Structures are given as C-alpha cells and as structure tokens.
Amino acid sequence: MRSALDTVESAKDASAMRSTRPGVGRSRVWPMQVRIIRSANRRRTVQARVVNGEVVVRVPQGMAAEEESRVVERLHRRLERRSAAKEVDLAERAGRLADRHRLPLPSGIRWVSNQETLWGSCTPATGQVRISDRMSGMPLWVLDYVLVHELAHISQPGHGPAFWRLVDRYPLSERARGYLMASGAGADLDGTDIDPVPA
How many Cβ atoms are within 10 Å of 87's Cβ, its own excluded? Predict the structure, then answer.
C-alpha cells in the first residue's frame, strides 16, 4: 500500500512509474522534493542523486512500499549529510585546532560516507584522517573534539595515557565525549577507530 504522500503520475515510458514526495516524509521535513522512479530494468540496486534541486531516487519496480520508504529516507539522509559536509572546511578547522592545541597536522583530511560505526578514523603511519559525514549534523564543538581525537592519533596510535593527555588539551573533550556517547558512538571511543599500524 502506497503512502498517502505519494502521487503517481502516468509515464510516457510504461517501464517506469514516477511518484513525487512533497518536502515532508514521516515526521521529518525535507528541504527538497523527492522523485521516485521505478524501473523494470533495475533488479536490486537503488540510486539517489540531486538533479536540479530535486532528489531523484531510482528503485526496482517490484520493491515493496515499506522497503522503498526506508531506502528513500536512508538515501535522502545520506545526501543531506554530504551537502552539509561540503559547508565545513575540514583542513582549515584541523589546522587551527592543531595550532591551538599543539597537535600534528594531518597529511590529508576528508569527509567519508562509509563509516557507519565510527565518527572518525586515522592512519597514524601516513597521517591521513577521515571524518564520517554523519558528523556534519553535529555541533561544531563536537566535530572539533573528533578532529582533535584523530589529530592526537597521528602521534599516539593507541588510547594510552599520553594519547588522552593530548586529547584533553581540547577544553570541551569530556563534554563532547558525553555528547557522542549519548548519540551512540561507543565504537569510536574504545580504540577501534584507528587503522592498524603497519609492521
């Protein structure tokens, strides 16, 4: 059964039906229209992208309405995070924080969308830092804590006392850790957020 928010319009191509979702879905307000294109040619994969200010989601024609709704919402959230992440210059923020708290600069830093259980990660051997785009919805002082946490890993790969002394140079460390714990970030705080150091 289709949601009352869906309106199906006839398509010139009989293999695809289009529906437009207004800027509201469940209890969330979406700033962009969402158009769903059902394709007989698509078997399992789904795709979402922004086209002319509208989120276009392509799904298999036979996908169940409940699954479609979950997939559309998940993909829409991901696109929103990517969009919000583009507004924050990670390299500039990391540079200011490294300077202010006497931490090493990363050799590279970027947003990533494939970290579902981590807020950030660091490869100490190369100095590369990756920040989950899920952080783009967090307050900037929490993002700054995650940046400091990852910058500290460049010189201290583990979570020993020397590492925590570096992290605690950031005055809101304890408060930010509490915020992240309340947001369900346990894995990022127990030592699983760094890549193994090559032997």
Answer: 7
**Which residues face 51 on adjacent strands?**
54
User: What residue ranges of the chain are covered by domains with CATH 3.30.2010.10?
Assistant: 90-189
Interatomic CA distance for residues 38 and 40, integer angstroms: 7
54-60 β-sheet, strand order = 7-9, 16-21, 34-39, 54-60, 47-51
CATH of 90-189, one of 3.40.50.2000, 3.40.50.720, 2.40.50.870, 3.30.2010.10: 3.30.2010.10
Amino acid at 8: V
Long-range pairs for 49-56: beta carbons < 8 A, 24 or more residues apart: 49/79, 50/79, 50/83, 55/30, 55/79
Q: Burial of 182 by CB count in 10 Å (0-12 exposed, 13-18 middle, 19+ buried)?
A: exposed
Asked whether the whole model's pTM tops 0.85, one would answer no
Average pLDDT in the chain: 75
C-alpha span between 196 and 158 (Å, rounded): 10
